[in-house]
Amino acid sequence: MTAAVDPVSRFIAEFEWNRPAAYGQLALRLLLPTLRLPFFRSLGSAVIRAALPAVTLTMGLFLVGNMFLSAAVERQYLSLRLPVLRDCPDAKSATARCIELGWADQRLRGWLEQALVVNPAQRLSSEQLLDVFDHVGIVQNQERSRRQETLHRLLTGSRTEWLWGACGVSVTAPPPQAIYEALSGGTTSGFSKMLAKDSDRLGDLKRKFLERYIAAMSVEMAEPIREVRRWNGSVQWATVLVAWLITWLGLQRGWLARTLDRTWLPHLTGELAASPSEEVQPPASPQKHELAALSGRLRTMKESGRDAAEIRETLDRELRVLRESIEEEIYGTLHFLLGVLPALGFIGTIMGMGSALLAADGLFSSANPQHAVADITQQLGFAFDTTLVALLAGIVTGIWLAAVRLYERRFLQQAEIVLVQIFIEASGHTLPLATRLT
Questions:
Q1: What torsion do the CA atoms of 204, 208, 213, 215 make, to the nearest 10 degrees?
Q2: Which domain holds residue 118?
Q3: Measuring CA to CA, which residue among 413, 416, 428, 417 is closest to residue 302?
Q4: In terms of Cα–Cα distance, which of 237, 114, 112 is closest to 166?
Q5: Is residue 62 situated within a structural domain?
Q6: Is residue 40 part of a domain?
Q7: What are the pLDDT digits (tens) for 195-231?
Q8: Which of 69, 233, 234, 247 has fewest C-beta within 10 Å?
Q9: Bridge partners of 169?
Q10: How far apart are CA 263 and CA 292, in angstroms?
Q11: Is the pTM of this model over 0.85?
Q12: Which residues of 178-188 are buried (b: 16+ CB within 10 A; e: fewer)?
């Protein structure tokens, strides 16, 4: 006789540890029995049926939302007037305010009064900035048009839309120094060379004034751009998709219970009230529900002459199994998806905080620490925004799911009373009320 081999020892001896494909086969063997569970079967089939409407609703929501958010950014840019200059009716008062704020040096007073000759209180900030650029030297119309397009693109966040915003919008807000370099054309451009010709470092002072003016405009544009960045991203998109999946699945379940409550249940009640000579028409389109199948089995038992006690036992057992099945397979699936929402928010938080920690090296190694600080704050904003979106989606879908679940529970209780009256009490056997509602 050969000695029995321990299954674990046999597995270790026969497993091909050096072959990567063996690990895939092992994972598949361990996963397949799990996928055969009723919970995962119902999860897969339900998600597949609801995938297309959920994706469509997600893309539609992002498309409409990004249209409104982008319009808000455009409105802010097209009506932007710096608050510190709104009450300055002339160039002298505007120049004095700029010097008071530290934007400009005293030596630029005469130059600024000439550059801000148009009424600062009524002039748009973008046009005023271009006036200052033009005052440095003779500027052709095409160069001013180029600067205007560049300023509009950079101050509005350089938005890149994926499929017209239906799949998200990517926002890049460069620092003021980068915007100035783009407007001036770089250190080798004619504009920079004209500034370099100024004596007593006036060119450098003009450059600093332009950068501070651009920084003030960026602060005013930060809020609408922040809203665009808050609601867009791969994690936010996935969160909204899962929320729509839960909403759609709950809507299907609630609509099914409502339809049965309006058609199938009145049909059973009509059977109870009808005399043998009356004919009760069945509902026009019977709906697929576990309770309808149970009613069919009870009807078969009653027509075959089964005892009322046996029918009652069958009804109690089937109702108990039915409730457990609905709670575990249907609402267990929905609660699993509901638990995915905060998990997605936590994943986004970890991604954002990890990127912020990686960007923190720029505080010491970068030539522009201010840009590194802006990058860190953007990554931290992404981290907390994903959590905010996930929590809001979880609250809304959780309330919706609780309402659908409560409605179906009440429908099941009402249907149970009707079934007891038809198949048990009509046969001469009375159930206590407490037993009916268990």
A1: 150
A2: 80-230
A3: 428
A4: 237
A5: no
A6: no
A7: 777 766 788 888 899 999 999 999 999 999 999 999 9
A8: 234
A9: 161
A10: 12
A11: no
A12: ebbbbbbbeee
